[in-house]
TrEMBL record:
Domain NACHT: 549-696
PANTHER family referenced in this protein's UniProt entry, alphabetically: AMELOGENIN, NACHT DOMAIN-CONTAINING PROTEIN
Residue stretches spanning the membrane: 111-131
Coiled-coil annotated residue ranges, if any: none
Transmembrane recorded as keyword: yes
Family matches, as Pfam families: Ank_2, Caleosin, NPHP3_N, WHD_GPIID
Gene3D superfamilies named among the record's database cross-references: Ankyrin repeat-containing domain, P-loop containing nucleotide triphosphate hydrolases
Keywords from the UniProt entry: Membrane, Repeat, Transmembrane, Transmembrane helix
Family that this chain belongs to: Belongs to the caleosin family.
Protein name as it appears in the record: Het-E-1 heterokaryon incompatibility protein
PROSITE patterns xref list: NACHT (PS50837)
Organism of origin: Fusarium tjaetaba
Length: 1188
């Protein structure tokens, strides 16, 4: 065609639109071979394989699979290998790039080629292919093949699918079937002969031999060394749809060859005429079991296949009468064929194993096909009256039925082959096993391919089925959409977006309790899969479906109520919808702010400030915005009445509000009535607020909530959860490997019997077993037999173990328990360790060590636990605290011990003064040391009145009393001294810290806030208060000092205490602030006017940052810099930074790496500092001639 001719332009364009291939001439009648062997050309009505002639380096793209092999993410995982290397990857089991002869033997044997043919393959392949892949001139004595050079093994007279570099050419691959398959989707033996003849090159004996070996030797298995396919998936064919699913087996039978039909007809004699499908399957199971027993010997490998057969036969039987809906004779034929093939399997393990593997898959294949028949029918797939929908549904069903017929037909042929090959005599089976070992494997693979087609059709039908459900759901959703939109719009109008920092401060002012941390702690300890039973209780379901109600969960001590509540919280959060609010709280008796109604309500108010789905957004309810400031202006605070009113207002605005409260019985008995009244009022007055509470059977709680829905944790409720807990905590221990499963069942039964539904008892016993030094059935059995029933008996065992320790360890345990019992707040490890070492009578510290958490845990048994979430010590359970209070140390005794120990400890730093000495101008004060029992409201106050003629002794000769008091936190008991201190607040000897700095360093918040309110000096002593706040990561003090206008440039240089790194706030932020807050702190200081070039000591903040900080931090300081600087000077400093590479930054700013600074090149400075990374970077810089 002359494309330059204007007459042909239109016809060319039209032809291109109809079929892009129509203008390409691929055959000439004068040359018949071009007509006989036409190349691959995708038509316009088929999926296109783009650029088929372009070789793919790492993707085996075909017409049906243009994306290559996607199973198991193959193409993605092997993207760094050529397609030829991917092919060889099967033989390279260890993926080291070297294929040994043994690797090839194992690969061929695994493919089913048998020993003889596998040995021949090794000799042929490694004898010819080893040397070309070697990197040296000498041959490899081990005849190894190196896959990095596998492309060198390409020979002539092949298909051309792989090019000389190992790439895959899709056009060449498709040409195999286009030229030689004569329109079929497979190749016959004669097609293969024509293929070898057509691809043969002149004078290429090696290529001819290679082609013969690869195509014909392995049993004509064309899916062999070079991945030639025997069959192609033809997705474009259409056949008339069957009339219904009951005809599928008849169609499959009708499509079989004559020999298969004759074989099936001969099997009809063995079918019981009146037997149902279930009876026939039962007979098959019985026969399979008998055959399994015959062959079930120690060295036999067939057991797994019999188990698989029985498993799927049971499944087929379980879905109903498979045969009843079909023709009774033909429907039973697959099962009869299966039975006879199974009976014929006797010898030749290798061949028999392949046959049995195919038979083991047969019940599964039949089961999956029958399920698809039953699920996807015309009735279930009906989606409407539209003609397009009906047509689409019918097409999906027709395609499914068509593929099922082909699948059943292939399955019958496979069974006939299994029976035929197993019925041959031993000699013939041996011959087949040697020269044709992979036919069964090939048949099974073909079945799996067809099965995947059936499943794919089922998935298409499933999509139509889902479309049916989606259409109905959308109709319902459209009906309720106006209501949902109205509610959502209302909630959004009530939410306002504010600055994240302002939002954080507002929420922190409402409540600072770490409610989420408490929940995460409990959830982490809850065994996965437990506590699910409570979600299925009718009472809970009614509460969950209601909009306004109060439900109480009662349980005995140690029953696991807290874990149940944590599951309910997770469930409520998961089920929450847009516009829903969820708040929760875990009450705790031994923490002041977790048992006070006001603190509890404040935490709930904070959580309700934002709907649960909007928590991560920077929004807040308009009623809470600027709430702390408004209350402060009105002279009020977050009292109980205010919290109740605000919670009610928020609940009215949300779609639904949920409040969940754990351990109400641990609230202060004197004030919890007020909390219960508030919760009742909120639910009674509102229709969209519900409350769920857990508690013990305390009389006042029972009385207040009388008549409300109640749930009670019974002993039988927790049996499965306790079993899961024991299995999780105990059975996963590696020491159980030598203990049999029967004994594990025995352990489980003991836990069921003795735990009586108490999680805490189970936890104590698990801990006792894990403490055993010798793990054996005898020692564990004795431990369980002697384990008591009930919590008190379990705690008695722990206490007796403490008494069996040395007297010193007993003393440490008593001190630890009493300190934790009386502490105003939970103690950290360092604090508890110090207090355990204080000798009560003398106040001295017995040793200079800090106990590890593991040591404290071992000393105190299971009575105390270390909360790793909050890094503090607590009683393991409220029942453990009550046990200590009731049976060993009452509160009066404990507080007496703690008070005496505290006074004796402080007395070490007091020095007796004569009575005529006047340390202060005022009359000598009387010191009242009061140890108030804050952790037990009903307990008495212990008052120890001591008239002290003391002044505070300085730890240093130049220290003042207020400095020492700031170190030890002596504030409340000496409040009058602080209030009358006046100018003493600002006195600090040279080179020492001010009281304000010491209070910040030691975390005494009430003390440093008092000094700030008293207008104490903000810029005083060394280090300054602002530096101390940064060094000790005291965020509250840092913010308070910034707001109080502390000087951000205050600093002192006093040798020898100052190192130069902490003498200004900005340097402290660079050197000691934690990474997460460093950028924020630096930015706050810079915003406050911090001078990056201020020189106090040896370096400025800018110089320190360049020598030690990262690029982001340095850029912050450069942006704040107001003075001119020499980039070469900064480059000389950057060369000394061993942590971060800043050289590129300053080179981009104009620095010259070849220009010395003060006589030294950056390279020399980097060498002096031992900065290897900087040296390497400088040496690798282009266009730099360091040698000059």
């Amino acid at each position: 065609m002359d494309f330059d001719d204007t007459k042909n332009t239109k016809s060319y364009s039209d032809a291109l639109k109809v079929d892009p291939n129509s203008i390409i001439t691929t055959s000439i009648d004068a040359v018949p071979v071009t007509v006989e062997r036409k190349p691959y050309q995708p038509g316009v009505d088929k999926p296109r394989l783009a650029h088929a002639g372009v070789a793919r380096a790492n993707l085996a793209a075909t017409h049906e699979r243009p994306e290559g092999t996607t199973e198991s993410n193959w193409a993605q995982r092997h993207q760094d290998q050529t397609v030829l290397q991917q092919h060889c990857d099967f033989f390279d089991k260890d993926h080291d790039g070297v294929i040994w002869p043994l690797d090839t033997f194992r690969g061929f044997y695994q493919l089913g080629y048998g020993i003889i043919l596998s040995v021949i393959s090794v000799l042929v392949i490694h004898g010819n292919f080893s040397y070309p892949t070697q990197s040296s001139l000498l041959p490899d004595p081990f005849f190894r093949i190196h896959t990095n050079n596998i492309h060198k093994d390409k020979h002539g007279s092949d298909t051309g699918t792989y090019d000389t570099e190992g790439r895959f050419v899709p056009q060449k691959f498709e040409d195999i079937f286009s030229k030689y398959a004569e329109g079929r989707d497979y190749l016959t033996i004669w097609d293969v002969m024509n293929l070898m003849k057509g691809q043969r090159l002149i004078a290429d004996p090696i290529g001819w031999g290679g082609a013969f070996f690869e195509y014909l030797m392995p049993n004509f298995n064309l899916f062999s060394i070079y991945h030639l396919l025997c069959y192609k998936i033809d997705t474009g064919r259409n056949h008339p749809a069957p009339l219904g699913t009951s005809w599928l087996t008849r169609h499959a039978y009708g499509q079989k060859r004559v020999n298969v039909k004759e074989w099936l007809a001969s099997l009809e004699q063995g079918i019981q005429p009146n037997a149902t499908a279930t009876e026939q399957i039962d007979a098959l199971i019985e026969q399979t079991t008998k055959k399994q027993k015959v062959l079930d010997k120690p060295n036999h490998r067939f057991r797994k296949y019999f188990d698989k057969i029985i498993h799927w036969l049971d499944k087929v039987k379980g879905i109903g009468d498979v045969v009843s809906s079909f023709d009774p004779v033909h429907a039973a034929l697959p099962w009869a064929a299966f039975r006879f093939a199974l009976q014929a399997v006797l010898a030749e393990k290798e061949q028999a194993e392949s046959v049995l593997e195919l038979l083991a898959s047969t019940p599964h294949f039949v089961f999956s096909g029958r399920v698809l028949e039953m699920v996807y029918t015309k009735d279930s797939m009906h989606i409407g009256e539209a003609q397009d929908d009906i047509k689409l549904t019918q097409q999906c069903l027709d395609h499914l039925h068509e593929e099922l017929i082909k699948f059943y037909s292939s399955l019958l042929s496979a069974l006939q082959y299994c029976y035929r090959i197993s019925s041959k005599d031993k000699v013939k089976r041996k011959a087949i096993a040697i020269f044709n070992p992979s036919e069964v494997v090939s048949i099974r693979k073909d079945l799996e391919v067809q099965h995947k087609k059936v499943i794919a059709c089922g998935e298409n039908c499933h999509k139509i089925f889902n479309h049916t459900l989606s259409s109905k759901s959308l109709d319902l959703l459209q009906k309720i959409q106006p209501t949902l939109t109205k509610i959502g719009d209302r909630v959004q109008k009530l939410l306002v977006r504010i600055d994240e920092e302002k939002r954080r401060k507002t929420l922190g002012a409402i409540s600072s309790i770490l409610f989420r941390s408490h929940h995460d702690e409990v959830s982490r300890k809850r065994t996965t899969g437990t506590c699910e039973w409570i979600l299925k209780r009718e009472t809970f379901i009614r509460w969950e479906e209601s909009d306004s109600s109060v439900t109480i969960l009662y349980g005995n001590p140690g029953a696991g109520k807290t874990f149940l509540i944590s599951r309910i919280i997770d469930y409520s959060i998961e089920r929450a919808k847009t516009g829903d609010a969820v708040a929760f709280f875990y009450c705790k008796r031994d923490e002041e702010n977790r048992r006070n109604p006001q603190d509890i309500l404040r935490s709930i108010l904070r959580q309700l400030s934002t709907p649960i789905k909007e928590v991560e957004s920077a929004t807040i309810h308009i009623a809470v915005k600027d709430l702390p400031s408004r209350l402060e202006l009105n002279g009020t605070t977050f009292d109980v009445a205010t919290c109740e009113s605000l919670i009610g207002k928020l609940a009215d605005d949300y779609r639904r509000t949920t409040i969940i409260l754990d351990a109400l019985d641990e609230c202060d008995r004197n004030t919890r009535e007020e909390l219960m009244r508030v919760l009742s009022n909120l639910t009674n007055e509102r229709s969209k607020l519900r409350v769920f509470i857990s508690s013990r059977h305390d009389e006042d709680i029972l009385r207040h909530f009388k008549g409300r829905p109640v749930m009670t944790v019974e002993a039988t409720d927790n049996e499965e959860d306790i079993s899961s807990y024991v299995q999780d905590k105990l059975f996963r221990d590696t020491r159980w490997s030598d203990i049999g499963p029967r004994f594990q069942e025995e352990v489980q039964s003991v836990f069921h019997k003795k735990s009586q539904g108490m999680f805490q008892w189970a936890a104590l016993q698990v801990d006792q077993i894990r403490r055993l030094k010798l793990w054996s059935e005898r020692s564990i059995r004795e431990q369980l037999e002697t384990s008591p029933i009930g919590l008190k008996g379990a705690y008695d065992v722990v206490w007796n173990q403490i008494q069996e320790m040395s007297s010193y360890e007993q003393q440490l345990a008593r001190r630890a328990l009493q300190w934790v019992l009386c502490a105003f707040r939970p103690l950290k490890t360092t604090e508890l360790s110090l207090m355990m070492l204080i000798e009560r009578d003398s106040g001295t510290i017995e040793g200079d060590i800090v106990f590890t958490p593991e040591t404290i845990q071992s000393i105190c048994g299971n009575l105390l636990v270390y909360d790793r979430q909050s890094n503090v010590w607590r009683f393991s359970h409220l029942s453990a605290r009550e046990y200590i209070e009731t049976h060993h140390y009452n509160m009066i005794e404990s507080h007496h011990h703690i008070a005496i120990s505290s006074i004796r400890f402080l007395e070490r730093d007091l020095v007796l003064m004569p009575r005529d000495t006047k340390p202060f101008p005022e009359p000598e004060p009387t010191l009242w040391v009061i140890a108030r029992n804050r952790s037990h409201a009903d307990g008495p106050c212990v008052k120890l009145t001591v008239q002290c003629h003391y002044i505070v002794k300085s730890p240093y000769r130049t220290s003042t009393p207020l400095q020492v008091m700031s170190i030890y936190g002596l504030f409340h008991i000496l409040r009058d001294l602080w209030e009358n201190a006046g100018g003493e607040l600002d006195i600090c000897p040279k080179s020492t810290s001010s009281p304000l700095t010491l209070a910040v360093q030691n975390g005494h918040e009430s003390m440093w806030r008092f000094i700030l309110l008293a207008k104490g000096k903000l810029n005083n002593g060394y280090p300054g208060p602002l530096v101390a706040a940064i060094q000790h990561n005291n965020e509250k003090a840092f913010e308070a000092l910034i707001e109080a206008k502390a000087d951000v440039n205050y600093g002192t240089f006093t040798w020898p205490y100052c190192t130069g790194e902490f003498d200004t706030p900005l340097k402290a932020a660079l050197s000691s602030s934690i990474k997460q807050n460093r950028r924020y702190i630096i930015q706050r200081l810079l915003d406050g006017g911090a001078d990056v070039n201020l020189r106090i000591g040896s370096v400025t903040a800018m110089e320190l940052a360049i020598k030690s900080a990262d690029e982001e931090t340095v850029k912050l300081l450069l942006d704040a810099n107001t003075k001119a600087y020499n980039p070469n000077y900064f480059l000389s400093l950057a060369a000394q930074n061993e942590k971060f590479n800043l050289i590129t930054l300053f080179v981009n700013l104009g620095a010259n790496v070849e220009e010395p600074w003060e006589g030294a090149l950056p390279l020399v400075l980097a060498l002096r500092e031992g900065n290897i990374s900087a040296v390497q970077y400088l040496l690798e810089m282009p266009d730099i001639l360091w040698a000059d």
